């Protein structure tokens, strides 16, 4: 058995890195501080939420949806614009789901769940639209 | 056991030599007990240092080729180590992963990642020698 009992890990690895980096910065010995910071940065390197490409992709997709929303309200009647916006959001969710699945962040079950929720939303919107016309 | 590279590191950082020796002693004891990896919080508890300081010392031992950092992918439900990865890309390639104990597929939300230090052969052979 290994002796001693360390501090419990915070739920999030990134938070752990932040905490260690703060702790490392306070080490008085210059050499040890430098090494401790190098080691603490490993937590950042491994953090699954630190995927800049994924964040950029999400921002681009969101910008497309936002653009579609603005154009829809400028060019269409209110109800039609609402339908277009909901379609755009559903499409956005599907794309984000596919990207997350492709990167291994979510399981197939979660992706199928997103698709089902999107299709249910679209079905309800179409029903409501039919009812209003 | 003698680690030639470690002597060079200790002479470069003489103020850390005694604590490095203590950590090496801990590692050798762990190896003798058949353990092949060092968990930083446990080593920190033994050395009575902060976890950040211990990580710094383990980084020096990495330079001396005594240990190598790896990431363990641990099931949040059962605490079972499901797999290990050398780097971030490795973690991404492994996930999602099937957990035999839960009998379920786990994605990033269901696991936690822990940084541990695997003993390299020259440290691990202390086990056989001891």
The end-to-end span of chain A amounts to 72 Å
Report the largest inter-chain contact: A-B, 40 and 43 residues
Which residue ranges of chain B are poorly predicted, with pLDDT under 50 across at least 5 consecutive positions? none
Tally of individual helices of chain A: 5
Strand content of chain A: under 5%
| Topology pattern of chain B, helix = H, strand = E | HHEHHEEHEEEHH
The computed structural class of chain B is alpha+beta
- Helical coverage of chain B, percent range: 40-55%
Structure commentary:
The complex is a heterodimer of chains A (133) and B (130). Chain A is mainly alpha-helical. Chain A has 5 helices and no strands. In chain A, helix 1 (13-25) packs antiparallel against helix 2. The longest helix of chain A has 25 residues, at 78-102. Mean pLDDT of chain A is 75; it is low at 1-10. With 130 residues, chain B is α+β, with helices and mostly antiparallel strands. Chain B folds into 2 domains: 4-66 and 121-129, no CATH class; 71-115, no CATH class. In chain B, 47% of the residues lie in helices and 24% in strands. Chain B is built from 7 helices and 6 strands; from the N terminus they run H-H-E-H-H-E-E-H-E-E-E-H-H. Chain B has a 4-stranded antiparallel sheet. In chain B, strands 4-5 form a two-stranded antiparallel sheet. In chain B, a hairpin with a 5-residue loop joins strand 2 and strand 3 (81-85). In chain B, helix 3 (40-47) packs across helix 4. The relative contact order of chain B is 0.20. The A-B interface holds A 1-7, 9, 11, 13, 20-21, 23-24, 27, 29, 31-40, 42-43, 45-48, 103-110 and B 13, 15-16, 30, 33, 35, 39-46, 50-53, 55-60, 69, 71, 87-88, 91-96, 105-109, 112-115.
């Amino acid at each position: 058995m290994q002796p001693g009992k360390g501090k419990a890990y915070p739920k999030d690895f990134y938070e752990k890195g932040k905490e260690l980096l703060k702790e490392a910065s306070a080490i008085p010995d210059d050499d040890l501080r430098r090494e401790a910071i190098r080691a603490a940065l490993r937590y950042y390197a491994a953090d699954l939420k630190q995927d800049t490409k994924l964040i950029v992709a999400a921002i681009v997709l969101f910008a497309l949806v936002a653009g579609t929303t603005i154009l829809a309200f400028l060019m269409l009647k209110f109800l039609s614009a609402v339908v277009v916006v909901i379609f755009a959001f559903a499409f956005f969710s599907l794309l984000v789901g596919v990207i997350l699945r492709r990167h291994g962040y979510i399981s197939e079950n979660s992706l199928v769940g997103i698709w089902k929720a999107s299709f249910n939303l679209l079905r309800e919107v179409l029903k409501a639209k039919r009812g209003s016309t | 056991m003698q680690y030639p590279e470690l002597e060079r590191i200790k002479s470069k950082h003489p103020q850390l030599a005694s604590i490095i020796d203590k950590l090496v002693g801990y590692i050798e004891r762990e190896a003798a007990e058949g353990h092949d990896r060092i968990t930083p919080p446990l080593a920190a508890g033994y050395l009575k240092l902060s976890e950040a300081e211990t990580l710094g010392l383990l980084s020096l031992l990495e330079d001396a080729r005594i240990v190598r950092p790896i990431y363990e992918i641990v099931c949040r439900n059962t605490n079972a180590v499901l797999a290990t990865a050398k780097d971030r890309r490795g973690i991404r390639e492994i996930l999602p992963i099937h957990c035999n104990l839960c009998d379920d597929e786990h994605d990033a939300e269901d696991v936690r990642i822990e940084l541990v230090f695997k003993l390299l052969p020259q440290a691990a052979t202390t086990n056989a020698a001891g």
